[in-house]
Write a structure and sequence with these properties.
The structure is a homotetramer of 478-residue chains. Chain A is an alpha+beta fold. The first copy, chain A, is globular and about 75 Å long. Chain A is built from 15 helices and 14 strands. Chains A and C meet through helix 8 of A and helix 8 of C.
Chain lengths: 478, 478, 478, 478
């Protein structure tokens, strides 16, 4: 099957899925005033494949025909660098917002390959053929795939089987000759409203008693029993002038409820192997953190570009403190970029799959996440108070008011009042509005928390060489 | 005249003022869907005066009768501490948003007293009686007063009289026996849509050639020739459940255009004394930064309270990293508070007026401003991704969806799903939404920029004692 | 007995105490080339009492005659402010190094008063009269008093009675009609080599089984069985030109070994009341952290003064980045000072004793400690590489070399080469040499660790008011 | 000529050079108690070439025979990576202290190649053959080469020819048929006491009037008229137990005085081409900053290794805050390493020479420099107060005291008291002693200042792409 067009993609989403927005069931996600924006945004990945300028990056042609590069299994550091470049490019077109409908699903599929191969080899299970079959299904049909991982968790100090209610983690409630039935709910499921498939992954390490919770599988977005309650956050409708990014780009999260959803055996990728729940969660997350830092690059580059241009428009590009802040923003962007590349170059091969270096990608992600708010502060500092006190497009459109605004806000010689307001609105959209807040929370929480990143760095780093050096210098044990 | 009631205050705003919102003239600011929220918010200052619980703090009774404490001229450190406490209290009731309709005006009036007294004494001008008369007018009629200070500035590397257009700074275009006529525009004018009077102040130091620009005066909000173009930023209408603060509280800024506004002589407080334009701007700003740090206290306290409660709701209050972040948030709040008090206690008396210690209040403000974004990051870290991925009130209201949400998001034993979502929405409102962005930009820019604060600290600090100590220790000059 | 003179103080230290330095027993600490510097430094406290310029601050005259202000029991916030001023002044004279011979002992005595009063009242013990008697002994004889608190601890994850060896915490090994006998060792005991008395305090909370370890008492510095092994760190002898501070000022720490030291009953202040071991440790530490931040003020002031003067000498005072760094150094110093004052003003009365506000003093200390290394970096940045590459005094003294050095390093018009090198050596001494490192480690570790400070802030802060505010704003429970 | 042995290297330094230390002329630098340590340290570069384990990294065999890899002209990114690896390795063997006797000289030679090629091509000068000849001289004779760059500068706000005295920058005072004569002094000249050759480079951009100051050349260390006044900083003699690094490793700086030193024409590489003074200074510095970050890696790795081992010895490796600090130290080290590699990989070819990417190497260096003091604070935090309060080796050697120290400080089961003290002394040596201070000042100042790094980043970064992206998103110019 060929690569889907945008129209084919949209048509394919009218499949009877159960999506609610503000208490009301959504008949057609593609035409919904809020979710429709998310669909249009997701369509970028499909548009790119058919755009001659993007084709070389977006599409891979191999023995099994052409398919999206997202589904290209990484075998080398260069594959990872190309994947990173594609994610960065799509996110640029997405106005700093990751598209994600193929990124996250392929991250999960790669991780499932690694874990299934390990399990089949060490425990004689037969997961790998299932994973490969489902992988080909997604790849060859050019599907959009979401990943439902974070359970609602109940009391976080307790494990899945110790909770007051058995449903606080998604679990298998029964099985028969056809497959298993799962129940529970996942939060923060991104792009699920406009994905074709939803991969279910465990969210944490598990213990002996958690067998029913050690489950990975895939369900179609329109599976019976599957209900998605879309988030109301940031469901803004407004003009492109005022909200140049968020009026056109959106990612939609759902509370994803599995109310006894049946999953056939060939879509079950982990069932009861509690010792691999943690490694599967972790392997997915490392791939996904590599995706994450790749998709952050347009955002941090924008800080540099918008900060520089705003300084020009404000007539303060010569001020020492402005150059100081811009130099720091440049450093911020370049360290994010450099460490992402380094994580690709220092990848590890597991069962023939190139896995980004876990330590380095967490260092990149941690660096990004822990400096993000300061970066915003610098951009806001350069931009000025007009970020939140400026007039609107209707004022510009009015003859008398428009003349006033043009006279007084178009004072700097390098920019018209209109361009200046456009730039201010762009910076506001990315740093002060609901959308800016969404980006900030993503920086802190998406793809795992800051604390998780630090603990991964701590565990992954091989300290032996450094400890030996310290001992040698100190004269210990010599 | 007695202290105005809320109804009297609202009625008094229907005075024919010229306000535009999104290109349309506003007939009645008190009933406008967006500006009306700002009016209701401003009314807090009037409500407090009539609330028996707040009366002692809000009202001062002296020889000239009862009046709002905001208009109480500070004579001692204790007066400043009381003023700070009133600002803090009103801001608490304002949901972390300063009320400002009397705060900022009185800051300007105190500064005008200081500068007028100095000018009259040193140059034989007659400004002080005018200032005193206008001050009594505001105080005795219990007026709401805005301050228009920041000019649009044109090319920032040039002074007022060097600009390509003469109107880039507000200036006197003519004068006659009755008074002066001013032209120009000010940006970022807060609470002007719902103030009675607007005090015009210079925004910077001026040189010999800037005589026409060295002007301070007061005009009624409905003065002929005065047009206010209200900012469209954050003009949200939404439910209190989703936006517990911003659905009820708002501050409104305008582009304030003086299109040949006549000002009678008894309202002119500076005219051509270019050497005092800078000192007047600075004296106002020091009073206003004291107001600023006072009104930041409920916000930083909320970070502590909401962070703590959210950690409880999320079941992570025992985590070391959470306690670490809460301890840092507590420190942040307490240093803001402690240094504000210290600035009051170390005030200086100028012509009998207690002026907050300029060095210390700038240190307090700089500390607040340069740590604000990190504080937000910590609060968001504790709160979790649900800040931007949660369901809405309509989902809770729906019987089937409501049951799902309650089951899955009400898992933690200490809070219902509804309360948890309320708290999440509160934290989102103050850190991630348009309103949160407004607060962040205020942190960086309101009452002067970070760079201005640093340069004031540098200039105000008497380094002599420290240099002498260094010399003594080094053995220099001994 | 009158206040001791410096000579009397020195003579009193020739008392047969057992002190070792580099493996050799020290016959006379006052004449030892390294420890003698510490004795001279300690003498500052005695010299001040007899210096007419310092007398008013250093000496209190009350109904029981004149005595050192260090021993003045604080009853009010003002007492604490005066105590802070005295500590600051003595440390100034001590070249940024705290004198400590009366500071730390009185901190312990105040804490012993509080705990003894509580124990006598609640458990019927008779400790307070003993504490009062010992307090009068110290005060009326004008004694230097050290505090031995930190045990060697063995395995830190275990309590005193759970250690592999019973002596890893100081404990009572026997008792008889005359008193108790203690054994064990304390580390980091400051000024013990030149104190008259050593107060022993518990270092942590204790459990039921730790009765023998819950001991507080006092022993003379020459007590039989008491051995002090002096630290070799920083035992430099050098010229005042090269090391303007450390050639004249030193604090000496010992490993303090109690090898069955007998303590008479009237010097035993805690014995077996395990539940008060923690509170006693904590109460001492809060007094001592107040001392700590008081004695840090000359150091942080010096950063401002030396940084400013160095910028002048280097001809870079006009550079924006230099002013930026100086403004931050000023803020650093003033926040330390302001929060110390605030902790005094917000003190709590316990049994009539004014205890510095524990939350606020920990905030002050944490702020100081966590910004110290950055402050050093700024000062070094301003000072330049000559800090570690400059010539020595012998080069200046040589006719030919001296001429070269004067020609080439005396280039800036505001300072001679000699003064410039003096200032560089001062900054080096306080930021780069052994002494600078000593100050840095003190910043991090003395008077309790950074983590301990954060946890105290977390525990001491009453979060109720803030949580209630969050609930009210969120509409929870209303 | 073969690669020199250590003995040959030392013998070659007895060449009649004029070196002073503390006012006294040094007869033989190799046997001087302080400078001799620097000679031994420098010998590492010679020892490595003859060590079979290091040979492959240290020596390159090409058409012109074997020579030190330091002198291998980088042609590819891989050459730079190998060079970086060699510098890192030598510095490891140097106990975190760079060896530098070939590193810095080759940095200068590479820069001279680039600039000479450019000048000869664009202005028809004949510098390149001279540079190539001198380069072969250094390479083929395996010489140690210092670089004298930083002038004493006088009044920093003025250029070389505007100074009060003509000698504040090194300049040509006369020329004849044989060559030029130079006068002036350079500060901070590292390894000059034990180098064979000293390359003189300009330190800044120059203007039209500065012709005499635009000079680059090379002089032998024993040239008549050349006087070196060695720095007295950190000239410690002590035991390896107490100072495991600084007792064995030292770098020596001099005030390097050119008192009419004659330089033959074939050693003159720039003379009067004022427009290339700045580019030559800059090109050298970019190579040298690449050397710098390469040689910082053992130091930052040591922080990780020593911090980890110390946490183990102290029994606190399980504490959350310790793991947090170690994770941050790991991130610090790995970002330094990753960005250094990225700067090599993104190198630019100039006249066939691979020049490290200027923007990226400055980002690496800035990141290293601005986080160094915090890293030290974390290591000190983990290590504890014993860094500055512990006993000495003589105490351990004494039977009675040694038993006490072993009993009380050897409490943790994983380490003896002796090993624990060895590790503490190592951490003290690198963070708190004169040597630690030397490292800290190097972090801030060596190879250019923090401000210079920021301004280079600002200038080198091509902002066009980011500005275009901002415009495209904002809808500006579309």
């Amino acid at each position: 099957m060929p690569l889907m067009t945008v129209d084919q993609y949209k048509a394919s989403l009218r499949d009877g899925r159960t999506v609610y927005y503000r208490g009301t069931q959504v008949e057609d996600v593609t035409t919904h005033p809020v979710i429709g924006v998310a669909v249009d945004h997701a369509a970028i990945d499909y548009r790119m494949a058919h755009d001659p300028k993007e084709h070389a990056l977006a599409v891979v042609t191999g023995p099994s025909g052409s398919h999206s590069r997202y589904y290209h299994m990484p075998r080398t550091a260069d594959d990872l660098l190309q994947r990173s470049a594609l994610i960065e490019r799509a996110t640029m077109l997405g106005g700093t917002l990751v598209v994600l409908v193929k990124e996250i699903g392929s991250d999960a599929l790669f991780a499932l390959h690694v874990i299934a191969a390990h399990l089949d080899r060490t425990k004689g299970t037969g997961y790998l053929p299932r994973v490969e079959q489902f992988y080909r299904h997604c790849r060859d049909n050019d599907l959009a795939v979401a990943v439902a991982q974070t359970d609602v968790k109940g009391d976080r100090s307790k494990g899945p089987s110790q909770q007051a209610h058995p449903d606080y983690y998604v679990h298998i409630v029964s099985e028969d000759s056809e497959g298993v039935t799962i129940r529970g709910a996942k939060v923060h499921t991104s792009v699920s409203t406009n994905a074709h498939e939803i991969i279910v992954l465990p969210t944490r390490q598990m213990g002996r008693a958690d067998e029913a919770y050690a489950v990975a599988c895939a369900v179609p977005a329109n599976a019976p029993g599957l209900t998605m309650i879309a988030s109301t956050y940031g469901g803004r409708t407004g003009s492109v002038f005022e909200h140049p990014i968020s009026a056109r780009h959106k990612m939609m999260e759902t509370l994803t409820v599995f109310d006894d959803v049946k999953v056939p055996w060939d879509r079950v990728f982990l069932k009861g192997e509690v010792e691999m729940a943690g490694p599967l969660a972790k392997t997915f997350v490392e791939f996904h953190r590599f995706t994450a830092v790749s998709y952050k690059l347009p955002l941090v580059d924008l800080f540099v570009g918008a900060g520089h241009l705003m300084a020009e428009y404000n007539g303060i590009l010569g001020a020492h403190h402005v150059r100081d802040k811009l130099a720091r923003l440049i450093s911020y962007a370049q360290i994010c970029r450099g460490m992402t590349r380094e994580a690709a170059r220092e990848c590890k091969l597991l069962d023939g799959i190139a896995v980004p270096n876990a330590e380095l990608i967490n260092i990149a992600k941690l660096y990004f996440a822990t400096h993000y708010h300061q970066a915003i502060a610098w951009v806001q500092d350069i931009a000025g108070g007009l970020l939140v006190t400026g007039p609107g497009p209707e004022d510009l459109a009015d003859p008398r008011l428009g003349a006033i605004v043009r006279k007084y806000l178009g004072a700097a010689p390098v920019a018209t009042a209109e361009d200046r307001l456009r730039l201010i609105n762009l910076i506001a959209d990315v740093t002060t509005t609901d959308f800016g807040g969404y980006q900030a929370v993503l920086a802190v929480h998406a793809e795992g928390s800051i604390e998780a990143e630090k603990m991964t760095i701590w565990r992954e780093h091989d300290v032996t060489r450094h400890v030996e050096y310290a001992k040698w210098l100190a004269g210990i044990g010599s």
